[in-house]
Amino acid sequence: MLVSLEMASLLSKTSQERPSLACKYTVSMETSAWSPVLGAPWLWPQRCLGSTESASLAWKEEICATPRLFADNPQEGQVKQGLLGDCWFLCACAALQKSRHLLDQVFPPGQPSWHDHTYRGSFTCRVWQFGRWVEVTIDDRLPCLAGRLCFSRCQREDVFWLPLLEKVYAKVYGSYEHLWAGQVADALVDLTGGLAERWSLRDLARASSQQDRPGGSEHRTCRRLLSLKDRCLISCSVLSPRAGARELGEFHAFIVSDLRELQGRAGQSILLLCIQNPWGRRCWQGPWREGGEGWSRVDPADESELLSQLQEGEFWVEEEEFLQEFDEVTVGFPITEAGHLQSLYSGKALCHTQELPGAWVKGQSAGGCRNNSGFPSNPKFWLRVSEPSEVFAAVLQRPRVCAAGQAGRARAPVGDRLASRSPASFLGEDYQAVGLHIWKVEKRRVSLPRVLSTPPVAGTVCHAYDREVHLRCELTPGYYLAVPSTFLKDVPAQFLLRVFSSGRVSLSAGPERATSRPPVCLSRAVPSSRRLGALPLGRPCPRASGRPCSCGAPGEPARQQGAVGTLPPTRATPASPCRSLRAQAPAASVSPCVNTARTPSATLSASTSSRQAPPALGVPGGGPQGLCVPTGGRA
């Protein structure tokens, strides 16, 4: 790859001043610079920009005269999105500012910084990957356009913890381009080592209407968020904007930075949510904007207080607006300074943690879901509970990475051939639909086929194409059998079973194999999750190819999630709206942030199943590099 003169002189300068680290990762794509986790090539950020921008891109060290790693107050370190569709990652980064011990876990304290004489031009960060904390060292060069950072930055441009962490995350996953589109929940797990939950507001509304209690479940969710606001990160996302709200974008993630309950002038209770847009500007024109008619319902003192605390990119919405305009909420589990998770439901500390790796091996232990007679051959684990406990059990999949080709395109087997796939599908395309079920047994010597034919005491609602699925249950003392499974039979994958409990538990490997027998309960497949920052695309049906999957036997609702990563509308709107496009086989011309379906004829849709998790935040379009702009964005 050719490098501009400005960049070449910069690399020459830094290599002379810092021979040990200067050019450690500043190599062309054809050489062997690899991600420490996935084994993917470390790519240049030019891959994420159009030809005009990449011509003037440079890696710069001296961006400002007095750089700082952290800000003196959280407002100065507020996240702002650049030219990369990684709003899902930036929302997760905001969680680190809520607790200093979380930030210290990612940025080990005591490292020399720019003004220390021992500073060598590098920083070391930690990212949680598949059960362990991985240390990643980077130099301090950052990609710039016209002298300014072209990707993420903080509110104060002399604060650099965020762009440095973004560079670390890009190194872990192979390139900046691979950060285009993802799930807030996945980034939260990578930065904290904990758990995160996604709540679909559309599903809650549907459940309330079916029970003839309109708004009941939704409003209870908002009240729960009010109780959680000081303990954990809350993010929300828009998958497809409602009429009149296109300023929120499509497939875009936001941060819920505050919640306030006010007493209205008429005596009614009013719940307001403060939403922070990673784009860094106020885009909401609702009744609670500055000067809006909503403020006439509250005391002027409350209006003055709430408006005065708004930072750039923040705006207030009422509970009803929030439920109407947003599709999904992601909540990270609180983590104490001792490193223990806290339950979102009871507030109990989950002080006891166990984890074991496992694998589904084709022809041996990949028995599929409970629809299949081979279900008993799935990996099994003994869980011993010593006291009444609140237990969270999670199955985390390891990304399956094959050989990597040049130009950042991964090559992986599809059927009997090798197919080139876009980097946007590099991380999430190979996730299987997984689920987890738990049975209580009287003793460890039991008839496994008989036990597995009875209803479990706990289980995931459906098999989901998510990186991690988890369940919550209240367990009494005794022995339990945990069986993680894929929906389809004979699909190989590796996983990590994690257990978090308020009481003492132990986890051990179960019997290797059990005699198969016909199942009595049926499972339902779910479509693949859409990452925020990608187009909504349905995963083809395992039983009938050609349309998004919403099939399965009665008993488990189908669900599809999405990825978040919308760019601010700084470009002209694409000639044809992205949501009218159709999925096509990956090719060089396909946008890197398109979450491509396996079936070429699958239609892009924001709602392809009855229980569909939110799509990716960020709509690609407007150029070969797929820069994302919401419909109606300005030039």
Automatic annotation (TrEMBL):
Region (Disordered): 546-577, 601-635
Active site: 87, 252, 277
Annotated GO MF terms: calcium-dependent cysteine-type endopeptidase activity
SMART domains, per the entry: calpain_III (SM00720), CysPc (SM00230)
GO cellular component: cytoplasm
Domain Calpain catalytic: 62-331
Source organism superkingdom: Eukaryota
Gene3D superfamilies listed in its UniProt record: 2.60.120.380, Cysteine proteinases (3.90.70.10)
Pfam entry (one): Calpain_III
CDD domains named among the record's database cross-references: Calpain_III (cd00214), CysPc (cd00044)
Keywords: Hydrolase, Protease, Thiol protease
Classification via InterPro entries: C2_III, Calpain_cysteine_protease, Calpain_domain_III, Calpain_III, Calpain_III_sf, Papain-like_cys_pep_sf, Pept_cys_AS, Peptidase_C2_calpain_cat
Family statement drawn from the similarity comment of this UniProt entry: Belongs to the peptidase C2 family.
Protein name per its UniProtKB record: Calpain-10 isoform X7
